[in-house]
């Protein structure tokens, strides 16, 4: 839901900006996450870097989950309520089914930019949603399964895990039952025994208070958390050449910066989990690799079924079987 107060605030900010600096172009940015913590750093850095470039271009963060439901952020950038969205593909698959494939890329963002895959994503997004796919500025954070009781094998039959459509292919491959609930309800459900575990990226379980109720982390991680930058195409096309080039250049710079940031934060998050006493549970390498292959296969099968036009091409450009 897009709250009326947000629309009023955006209109007021636009009028004030127009009166204060008629030559400056203000772009309104929305995020699907709370504007704090490690997940917010990539978009905040992008905003700061663009604003430092000048080009009569200023980015302002005007929307977050307190004002726009994360699952409506795609519609907000499509309609022009905001100009730029920082959002994961799994939150707008109702508009672009192919966005679900973003989690299944196992080539680096640099590789998929070089081989034309991101150009194809841009084409698809323009056709189906009327937005520009500026970049994939968060990429490669493994999704994990965390539990309160120790798994004895990779067969999780009898486990009930909190999941979302993002996690469901892997959890069902493991034999688990999947219960969907908001992230804020995981703590109580785990503590009360309603669920035995949950899916969450490697990053951020401490932000939810889950370090104290989580005992095990199943390794290896699977799929890859991602967050893209989308921009309303009409707004993008209305900018001058220099402004469009700044946005393109800083999107690529953000992708490149994130590779180092990823390594740093992964190590920090594992250290936090280790300090909390969370045990990494590993089984045979061959068995784990086969499981990931099956989960990837199931996910790609679903993507191709939803997008017979582009699914196979996306897979060929972005995924290498291991």
Automatic annotation (TrEMBL):
<keyword id="KW-0732">Signal</keyword>
<dbReference type="InterPro" id="IPR018389">
    <property type="entry name" value="DctP_fam"/>
</dbReference>
<dbReference type="InterPro" id="IPR038404">
    <property type="entry name" value="TRAP_DctP_sf"/>
</dbReference>
<keyword id="KW-0574">Periplasm</keyword>
<feature type="signal peptide">
    <location>
        <begin position="1"/>
        <end position="22"/>
    </location>
</feature>
<dbReference type="Pfam" id="PF03480">
    <property type="entry name" value="DctP"/>
</dbReference>
<protein>
    <submittedName>
        <fullName>TRAP transporter substrate-binding protein DctP</fullName>
    </submittedName>
</protein>
């Amino acid at each position: 839901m897009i709250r009326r107060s947000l629309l009023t605030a955006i209109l007021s900010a636009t009028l004030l900006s127009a009166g204060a600096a008629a030559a400056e172009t203000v772009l309104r940015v929305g995020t699907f996450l709370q504007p704090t913590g490690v997940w917010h750093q990539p978009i905040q850095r992008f905003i700061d870097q663009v604003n430092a470039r000048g080009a009569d271009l200023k980015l302002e963060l005007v929307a977050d989950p307190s004002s726009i439901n994360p699952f409506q952020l795609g519609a907000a950038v499509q309609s022009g309520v905001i100009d730029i969205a920082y959002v994961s593909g799994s939150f707008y698959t109702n508009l672009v089914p192919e966005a679900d494939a973003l989690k299944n890329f196992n080539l680096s963002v640099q590789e998929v930019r070089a081989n034309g895959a991101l150009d194809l994503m841009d084409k698809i997004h323009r056709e189906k949603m009327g937005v520009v796919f500026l970049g994939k500025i968060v990429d490669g954070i493994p999704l994990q399964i965390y539990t309160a009781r120790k798994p004895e094998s990779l067969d999780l039959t009898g486990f009930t895990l909190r999941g979302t459509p993002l996690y469901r292919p892997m959890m069902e491959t493991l034999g688990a039952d999947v219960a969907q609930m908001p992230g804020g309800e995981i703590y109580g459900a785990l503590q009360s025994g309603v669920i035995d575990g949950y899916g969450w990226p490697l990053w951020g379980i401490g932000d939810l208070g889950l370090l104290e109720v989580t005992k095990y982390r199943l390794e290896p991680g699977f799929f890859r958390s991602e967050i893209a930058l989308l921009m309303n195409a009409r707004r993008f096309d209305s900018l001058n050449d220099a402004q469009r080039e700044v946005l393109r250049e800083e999107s690529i710079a953000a992708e490149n910066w994130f590779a180092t940031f990823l390594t740093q934060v992964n190590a920090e998050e594992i250290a936090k989990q280790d300090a909390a006493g969370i045990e990494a549970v590993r089984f045979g390498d061959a068995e784990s690799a086969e499981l990931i292959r099956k989960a990837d296969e199931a996910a790609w099968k679903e993507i191709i079924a939803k997008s017979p036009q582009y699914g196979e091409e996306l897979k060929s450009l972005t995924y290498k079987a291991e």
